[in-house]
UniProtKB/TrEMBL annotation:
Main location class: membrane
Annotated Inositolphosphotransferase Aur1/Ipt1 domain residues: 119-288
InterPro entries recorded: Aur1/Ipt1, IPC_Synthase-Related
Transmembrane segments: 59-76, 123-145, 157-175, 221-239, 251-270, 276-294
Coiled-coil features, chain-numbered ranges: none
Organism for this UniProt entry: Sorangium cellulosum (Polyangium cellulosum)
GO cellular component: membrane
Protein name: Inositolphosphotransferase Aur1/Ipt1 domain-containing protein
Keywords recorded for this protein, A-Z: Membrane, Transmembrane, Transmembrane helix
């Protein structure tokens, strides 16, 4: 009963709802024998953060876009079913790359992927493995930093990631496309049962004597999810939300990271250049929508003070910018009176 009252105090009459989608998803996968440790870990994280305390509830609400992305992206592979071969773009993207961005080399027309494949070197392999191996860590660390220092920027970051991923996942379903490594290995024939691959990152696994990238890409949602490239969008979330306030070294580092991610996507044979361009277009669309929904309110200090934390209100209270305490209301009234005499 104590736990029940605690949950009701945090969420009101719908106290049972917040963790339900993730718990139900983990239960469905467990019944199918397809549940992994990360499904259980996310379900536990959601439940704990939703109910532990008002502070953890605030974290849950601010992290909600990322949690929804996990659910939608993973369900694409677990519950999405197989694609119809006739619906998949395979050699069509390669031909478009050659027509738009092809480079004449020794009498042949090469795509950017084929051109960069001639530069293969262990040092480049390792360099390109850095953004592909650590993008989740970098994105999470950047968001947590903003969450502690600039509430509105953190929310813009999270919802920008959500909106971009939503557009990408919808495209994966409506316009499945084969990545360069698939066309290079299998040609234009589409196999609905094909498995995901780390492509050129297998060289990094072999060089370091690890199976990190093989294991990572074994959990990929779909082989035919090349268009758009979401990898190239990850560095842009933090770059866009901090563009007006970041220091010059920070901006330089973020721009270099974004450039390296683009180079790696092509060099590692994971994406066509067209995939990257569509990813950038989706970020632009998502950024326009997020900018309207969550406008920038000035300096970080002003932004934090202008919008109260999402979880400051209980489940039955309406979130508002009006101070709740009588002392705060009196102070606000006095400030307004002083402004009239200036």
């Amino acid at each position: 009963m104590i736990l029940l009252r605690h949950a009701r105090a945090l969420w009101g009459r719908f106290f049972w709802l917040p963790p339900l989608p993730w718990l139900a998803y983990a239960a469905v996968l467990a019944a199918r024998g397809a549940a992994r440790w990360d499904h259980l870990a996310v379900a536990a994280l959601v439940t704990t953060s939703a109910y532990a305390s008002p502070r953890s509830r605030r974290f849950f609400l601010n992290a909600l876009p990322f949690l929804l992305v996990f659910l939608a992206y993973d369900a694409l592979g677990q519950l999405g079913g197989r694609v119809a071969p006739d619906d998949v773009l395979a050699c069509e993207l390669r031909d478009a790359e050659r027509a738009l961005f092809g480079v004449q080399v020794e009498g042949g027309l090469l795509t950017p992927n084929e051109l960069l494949a001639r530069l293969t070197h262990p040092a480049l392999d390792l360099l390109c493995a850095l953004p592909y191996g650590g993008y989740l860590l970098v994105m999470g660390a950047h968001w947590l930093h903003l969450y502690r220092s600039d509430a509105i920027a953190a929310r813009r970051f999270a919802w920008l990631a959500f909106a971009t991923h939503l557009l990408g996942i919808l495209t994966y379903r409506l316009l499945p496309a084969a990545p360069p490594w698939y066309v290079q290995a299998r040609g234009c024939a589409v196999d609905p049962a094909a498995q995901t691959s780390p492509a050129a990152l297998v060289r990094v696994d072999a060089m370091l004597g690890i199976t990190y990238f093989r294991d990572l890409y074994s959990r990929g949602a779909t082989v035919y999810g090349a268009l758009p490239s979401l990898h190239v969008t990850y560095p842009l979330y933090g770059l866009l939300v901090t563009l007006r306030r970041a220091s010059a070294p920070s901006l330089a580092l973020q721009i270099a990271y974004a450039a390296l991610m683009l180079f790696a996507a092509i060099y590692l044979n994971h994406h066509w250049l067209l995939d990257a361009l569509l990813g950038y277009a989706y970020v632009a669309l998502a950024w326009a929508a997020v900018g309207r929904a969550l406008p920038d309110r000035g300096t970080p200090a002003q932004a934090v003070g202008a919008l109260p934390p999402l979880a400051e209100a209980s489940g039955s209270q309406r979130i508002s910018g009006v101070p709740r305490s009588a002392a705060a209301q009196r102070l606000q009234t006095k400030s307004a009176s002083l402004r009239r005499f200036r």
